[in-house]
């Protein structure tokens, strides 16, 4: 049985493949909700489907979103859901299993929705390194984005874990927030240029494989290396491997770039007619505010595409009606 929210206006639409929605939005993060808000205000028949797995759920606060700086991520989504429900856009809790080229959206449990257009905003997941303690501290004092979290740990002793090639740039960037940064290459092979840049920026390199994170009184205290040496630190940064939730787009046959990410135009239109994508599912670097913007851009384009179709249909019907009275 498909679960729905408690609000009577957020109940699942009737599972009837003959009922046609203008747009089915898959994913109720910043991108999906922003798109649904604009389309709802445009009086389109829209439904949002969400599996309830936001990427930033471990974080206590989000930053860099004008007028919403410091707001808990979950609160932003609650506010967004309330706003779209006010425009008669229901939110259906569940997981989409399949979308075919006729835009029949099939959910786990059997519900099927028919759509004229589809927007995929399913985000991504962060694949974390297999270092004991990292997953438990993720989003608390083991962090990723300097723009999102570094200000809150400014001027503190920080460490960057060399678990991904992007860690070097991350460490160079973090120097703007603290002058006490240790870089642990771990298993990362640093080039001569990497070392020169890190040293020039005043970062301290400590060789050795990471054994585990040292936590005491529910706080990160340091990083223990394989030789038993503990590097005292107040917070750690690492660069996770972003893995997009793009299975639905892949099954539809959407084109991808050499890096394996689905390709869209500036409005989020994919290579498959009638299918758009927005947010982190196609852009791993998009912060919350940027993801919201891509959702709005996609909604503008989708509404215009639907309008073109509506006008063409109206012209054809008008011609037929005129010919019938001659």
UniProtKB/TrEMBL annotation:
It comes from the Bacteria. Residues 21-294 form the FAD/NAD(P)-binding domain. It comes from Streptomyces decoyicus. Keywords: Flavoprotein, Oxidoreductase. It catalyses: [thioredoxin]-dithiol + NADP(+) = [thioredoxin]-disulfide + NADPH + H(+). It holds the Pfam family Pyr_redox_2. This is FAD-dependent oxidoreductase.
């Amino acid at each position: 049985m498909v679960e729905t929210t408690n609000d009577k206006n957020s109940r699942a639409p009737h599972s009837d493949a003959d009922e046609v929605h203008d747009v089915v939005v898959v994913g109720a993060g910043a991108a999906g909700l922003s798109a649904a808000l604009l389309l709802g205000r445009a009086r389109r028949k829209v439904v949002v489907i969400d599996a309830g797995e936001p990427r930033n759920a471990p974080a206590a606060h989000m930053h860099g979103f004008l007028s919403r700086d410091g707001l808990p991520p979950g609160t932003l989504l609650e506010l967004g859901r309330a706003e779209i429900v006010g425009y008669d856009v229901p939110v259906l809790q569940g997981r989409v299993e399949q979308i075919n080229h006729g835009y029949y959206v099939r959910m786990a449990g059997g519900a099927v929705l028919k759509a004229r257009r589809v927007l995929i905003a399913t985000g991504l997941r962060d694949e974390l390194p297999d270092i004991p303690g990292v997953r438990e501290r993720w989003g608390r004092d083991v962090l990723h984005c300097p723009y999102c979290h570094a200000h809150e740990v400014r001027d503190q002793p920080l460490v960057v874990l060399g678990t991904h090639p992007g860690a070097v740039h991350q460490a160079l960037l973090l120097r703007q927030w603290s002058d006490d940064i240790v870089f642990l290459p771990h298993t990362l092979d640093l080039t001569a240029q990497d070392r020169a840049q890190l040293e020039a920026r005043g970062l301290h390199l400590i060789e050795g494989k990471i054994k585990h994170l040292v936590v005491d009184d529910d706080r990160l205290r340091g990083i223990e290396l394989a030789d038993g040496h503990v590097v005292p630190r107040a917070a750690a940064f690492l660069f996770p491997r972003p893995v997009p939730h793009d299975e639905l787009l892949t099954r539809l046959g959407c084109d991808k770039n050499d890096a394996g990410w689905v390709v869209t135009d500036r409005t989020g239109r994919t290579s498959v007619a009638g299918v758009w994508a927005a947010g982190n599912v196609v852009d791993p670097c998009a912060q919350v505010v940027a993801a919201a913007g891509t959702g709005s851009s996609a909604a503008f384009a989708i509404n215009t595409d639907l309008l073109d179709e509506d006008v063409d249909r109206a012209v054809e019907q008008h011609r037929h009606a005129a010919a019938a009275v001659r």
